[in-house]
């Protein structure tokens, strides 16, 4: 089964830096196993997506947005619609990243609209889910995940769900590997109960070249969503290289 390796650059990058980054990453992408068995996606800041799309047009890399708005167009200063992302050649969009839930107050009703907008625009949504440390300590993880996944009930096409517990993001701490497998399994079965379909379930949170092999070898984890370790082409390239060998 095809696996995903996704970079989330968050609010990082410069136009000159992106050209250098792609030039360096290219050598990690020429391997046939990467082309045939991995889907590599970069979710960049929206101002750089067109540049990134141009720089990657000959490469096996897809481009994704980091968010989209709940409307197609109109008086929403500073926002980007799913249609605009599709218009410049994006194929994917992250929705509900924990940083957007935390800093932009995005709740399930907002996020459901975003998922529908993404789908209507022909984008594949990558829904980020995961519990906070407090929710974990209160044994509320399953309840939180069910609530977060419930917004996918009307999704028709391909769907990716990234399990990213917010206490593992940027901390260097990951859940125990068995716990990650169990959570990914649980998410897959909750999604199946809800829609009768299968989704790709990824893990994110402090993924790097040292720990990625386990995730890529696991039958329960369909790939990884990488933050910090995707910012340098050498470390993201290494992750891709290891991912290709693991298949
Ligand atoms: P880190 O890999 O930096 O922990 O970030 C994970 C993340 O938030 C990816 O979306």
Walk me through the structure.
The model has no long low-confidence stretch (mean pLDDT about 95). This protein has one domain: Aldolase class I (TIM Barrel, Alpha-Beta Barrel). The chain has helices spanning about 15-25, 30-35, 50-55, 80-85, 100-105, 110-120, 135, 140-150, 175-195, 210-215, 235-245; strands at about 5-10, 40-45, 60-65, 90-95, 125-130, 160-165, 200-205, 225. By secondary structure, the protein is α/β, with parallel strands linked by helices. Helix 10 links the parallel strand 7 and strand 8 (about 225). Helix 1 packs parallel to helix 11 and helix 8 crosses helix 9. An 8-stranded parallel β-barrel has the order 1-2-3-4-5-6-7-8, surrounded by 5 helices. It binds 1,3-dihydroxyacetonephosphate. The site of 1,3-dihydroxyacetonephosphate has 14 residues, from strand 8.
Keywords:
247 residues, alpha/beta, TIM Barrel, eight-stranded parallel β-barrel, binds 1,3-dihydroxyacetonephosphate
Radius of gyration: 17 Å
| SSE arrangement, N to C | EHHEHEHEHHEHHEHEHEH
Q: Which stretches are poorly predicted, pLDDT < 50 over at least 5 residues?
A: none
CATH superfamily: Aldolase class I
- CATH structural fold name: TIM Barrel
Q: What do the pLDDT scores average to?
A: 95
Largest sheet: 8 strands, parallel, barrel
CATH architecture field = Alpha-Beta Barrel
User: Can you tell me the number of structural domains?
Assistant: 1
The CATH C-level name is Alpha Beta
Q: Classify the helix fraction into a percent range.
A: 40-55%
Distance between the termini: 8 Å
Question: Using DSSP, what is the number of strands?
Answer: 8
Strand order in the sheet with the most strands: 1-2-3-4-5-6-7-8
Number of helices: 11
Bound ligands, named by name, code or SMILES: 1,3-dihydroxyacetonephosphate
Give the structural class: alpha/beta
- Percent strand equals 15-25%
């Amino acid at each position: 089964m095809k696996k995903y390796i996704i970079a989330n650059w968050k609010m990082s990058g410069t136009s000159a830096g992106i050209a250098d980054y792609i030039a360096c990453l290219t050598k990690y992408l020429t391997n046939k196993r990467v082309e045939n068995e991995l889907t590599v996606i970069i979710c960049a800041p929206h101002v750089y997506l067109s540049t990134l799309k141009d720089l990657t047009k000959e490469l096996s890399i897809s481009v994704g947005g980091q968010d989209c708005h709940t409307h197609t167009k109109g008086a929403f200063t500073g926002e980007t619609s799913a249609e605009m992302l599709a218009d410049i050649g994006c194929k994917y969009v992250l929705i509900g990243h924990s940083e957007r839930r935390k800093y932009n107050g995005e709740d399930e009703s907002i996020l459901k609209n975003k998922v529908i907008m993404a789908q209507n625009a022909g984008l594949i949504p990558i829904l980020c889910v995961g519990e906070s440390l407090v929710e974990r300590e209160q044994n509320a993880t399953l309840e939180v995940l069910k609530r977060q996944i419930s917004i996918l009930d009307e999704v028709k096409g391909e769907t990716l769900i990234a399990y990213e517990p917010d206490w593992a993001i940027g901390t260097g701490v990951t859940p125990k590997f068995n716990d990650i497998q169990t959570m990914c399994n649980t998410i897959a079965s909750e999604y199946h109960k809800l829609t009768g379909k299968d989704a790709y379930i990824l893990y994110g949170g402090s993924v790097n070249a040292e720990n990625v092999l386990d995730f890529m070898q696991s039958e329960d984890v369909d790939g990884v969503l990488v933050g910090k370790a995707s910012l340098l082409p050498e470390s993201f390239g290494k992750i891709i290289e290891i991912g290709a060998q693991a298949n």
